Amino acid sequence: MSLDLREFRDALGSFATGVCVVTAHPEGFEPFGMTVNSFAAVSLEPSLVLWSLQNTSDCYAAFEKADHYTINVLSESQRELSNYYARRNQHTLLDDHYRIGKTGSPILRGAVSSLECKIWARYPGGDHVILVGEVLEMEYSRNEEPLVFHAGKYGTIR
User: Fold this and answer.
1) What is the pLDDT of residues 6-56, one digit of tens each?
2) Nearest to 95 by CA among 109, 76, 111, 112
3) What domains are defined for the chain?
4) Which of 59, 138, 145, 146 is most deeply packed, by most CB within 10 A?
5) How many beta carbons lie within 10 A of that of residue 130, not counting itself?
6) Quick check: pTM over 0.85?
7) 26: closest CA among 119, 98, 108?
């Protein structure tokens, strides 16, 4: 069976997801972030989450060096932040966008939730690498609505 890759991508886009910016500050790199929507829960005990990174990403080398990162689930008011950190070669965090968390990883201000993780495992996944992280620290705001992505467009759950 041969899939039409555009049609496959469109089919995947029919699944509504949240929007996250994964942030890190590995040795030898500036604090940086990149927009992703490939985030999922794995386990409650231990507390594990995953996301995937394209092998050709301009952030690949930095994430190879990272042993900690933060998954920042964006709020509906953070579309501009999502767009900003989605651009190729535009991943250095702006000073007013973040602060340093308890694990030393950058945390975005205004996120619905921020999960500070230690790398648990890396797995090959076709043209991506799957990064599994153990959540060490977290912050969660019940007052913020998440930013949603569906069929190539942003939305909200309201």
Assistant:
1) 888 888 777 788 999 999 999 999 999 999 988 999 999 999 999 999 999
2) 109
3) 17-150 (2.30.110.10)
4) 59
5) 17
6) yes
7) 119
